[in-house]
Design goal:
This protein is α/β, with parallel strands linked by helices and 457 residues long. It folds into 2 domains: 80-115 and 238-451, Rossmann fold (3-Layer(aba) Sandwich), CATH 3.40.50.1100; 119-231, Rossmann fold (3-Layer(aba) Sandwich), CATH 3.40.50.1100. The protein has 18 helices and 15 strands. The strands form 4 sheets. The chain has a 7-stranded mixed sheet with strand order 1-4-5-15-10-11-14, sandwiched between helices. Strands 8-7-6-9 form a 4-stranded parallel sheet, with helices on both faces. Helix 4 packs across helix 5 (145-156), helix 10 packs across helix 12 and helix 11 (246-258) packs across helix 12. Bound molecules: pyridoxal-5'-phosphate. Pyridoxal-5'-phosphate binds next to helix 12.
């Protein structure tokens, strides 16, 4: 396909009818079952129906399903059609700049209206709530990537949306807040006086800047207290990994159209969803014997996979959510203020954690400055300004391509461009003016947070 004289093929598009019809569920192909969630108080295995005050039944069923293929409802495919299928792009300018014999491809998830992969699951979650008669969704957001995705999805499915936004971000990062408001969401700075957990924190510290953990507590509380309202989570859970597999399923087809196949697949990991979305569908090929490597990349400042433990832990800071078996730095871990806000989570998706344990996924931790440097190189060659989160995947791809230059290997590298960074220019300004630092998290602090984990095996 690259032989045309007039131009070099850079992008492969699919028609809208080629939006996948089914999601791929890795649970069907696991050699051992996922450890079940555990009740935060009784410490007994959670029964799925105990989640019903928080999530709709359709999503709870997907959370525990072992069916390999799950049909995507037409209304969800229709909503995905606003921006899907997304292009698969060959980064020819970057290859040239690196003088590498490797072929570098990326799946461009930045083309969605909010600018990331997150609406892939937001529209599915909004749909399953809508068909069960729910009228309102609540969630938390840090920098606003997830909140803006859910705001759009609620708009599309005519649901009310309340987003508890970490107060410092609410004040310092107004653009995504405005995006959410344009899409009709109510954005509440957290901690707020609207919930018991918020009031409790404000009473102790009226100036509290908030945290993701506090905002989760507020969002869950307001959902549980209103029978017409449910909560939505943007990563970590099994059903979120499932919804994101549209990324890898499209990429699989696009690679085939190109007549190529990846040797290495790379994604950045916060809660694990964009990585899982691209990589999980390719595990079928790996299990069938193709020598394909999957690499999950995290920040050195929040090293969940490389320095955390595979144990049961809470999803939130307050210790109110069910316990999940996952790689974790401890729910009381407070990550430094690095600029990849979406990668600052103490835990990791149980499915990604198990895939690491099974040896299917390699892990890599990188410093933020080398990632920003790779992002600058990417913007200067391919034009797209990536999200700071995404820059971790780009740096890993660049390292891989440079290794190929040394060895002469013509590897095929595929990474997920999880989002653009047009709302993160403040971070880029800091990078350009030399105000970014690298953090190595001290082992004592990790040990201290891990020591607070609940004694559940
Ligand atoms: C939220 C986010 C991430 C991290 O979340 P995952 O669940 O690990 O994908 C990565 N990139 C972008 C652009 C994001 O918005």
């Amino acid at each position: 396909m690259s032989g045309d004289k007039a131009f070099l093929t850079r992008r492969i598009y699919l028609g809208q009818s080629e939006i996948p019809q089914r999601w791929y569920n890795l649970q069907a192909d696991l050699p051992e079952p996922l450890p079940p969630p555990i009740h935060p108080v009784t410490k007994e295995t959670l029964r799925p129906e105990e989640l019903e005050p928080i999530f709709p039944r359709g999503l709870i069923a997907q959370e525990v399903s072992k069916e390999r293929w799950i049909e995507i409802p037409d209304a969800v495919r229709d909503a995905l059609g606003l921006w899907r299928p997304t292009p698969l792009v060959r980064a020819r300018n970057l290859e040239k700049e690196l003088k590498t014999p490797a072929r570098i491809y990326f799946k461009d998830e930045s083309v969605s209206p909010p600018g990331s992969h997150k609406p892939n699951t937001a529209v599915a979650q909004a749909y399953y709530n809508k068909v069960e008669g729910i009228r309102q969704l609540t969630t938390e957001t840090g920098a606003g990537q997830w909140g803006s995705s859910l705001a759009l999805a609620c708009r599309l499915f005519d649901l009310e949306c309340t987003v508890y936004m970490v107060r410092v971000s609410y004040e310092q990062k107004p653009y995504r807040r405005t995006m959410m408001q344009l899409w009709g969401a109510r954005v509440v700075p957290s901690p707020s006086s609207e919930t018991q957990s918020g009031r409790h924190i404000l009473a102790a510290d009226p100036q509290c800047p908030g945290s993701l953990g506090i905002a989760i507590s507020e969002a869950v509380e307001s959902a549980v207290c209103n029978p017409e309202c449910r909560y939505a989570l943007g990563s970590v859970l099994n059903h979120v990994m499932l919804h994101q597999t549209v990324i890898g399923l499209e990429a699989e087809k696009q690679m085939e159209l190109w007549g190529d196949f990846p040797d290495v697949i790379i994604g950045c990991v916060g809660g694990g969803s964009n990585f899982a979305g691209l990589a999980f569908p390719f595990i079928r090929h790996k299990v069938a014997g193709r020598p394909i490597r999957l690499v999950a990349v995290e920040p050195r400042a929040c090293p969940t996979l490389t320095r955390g433990q595979y144990r049961y832990d809470f999803g939130d800071t307050a210790g109110q959510t069910p316990l999940l078996k996952m790689h974790t730095l401890g729910h009381s871990f407070v990550p430094p203020g690095i600029h990849a806000g979406g990668l600052r989570y103490h835990g990791m998706a149980p499915m990604v954690s198990l895939a690491v344990k099974l040896g299917w996924v390699e892990i890599l931790a990188l410093h933020q400055r080398e990632c920003f440097e790779a992002a600058r190189l990417f913007a200067a060659t391919e034009g797209i300004i990536p999200a700071p989160e995404t820059s971790h995947a780009i740096r890993a791809a660049v390292l891989e391509a440079l290794r190929c230059r040394e060895t002469g290997q013509e590897k095929c590298i595929l990474f997920n461009l999880s989002g653009h960074g047009v709302c993160d220019l403040g971070s880029y300004e800091k990078y350009l003016t030399g105000q970014l630092d690298d953090y190595e998290y001290p082992q004592e602090r990790i040990d201290a947070a891990l020591a607070e984990l609940p004694p559940v095996e």
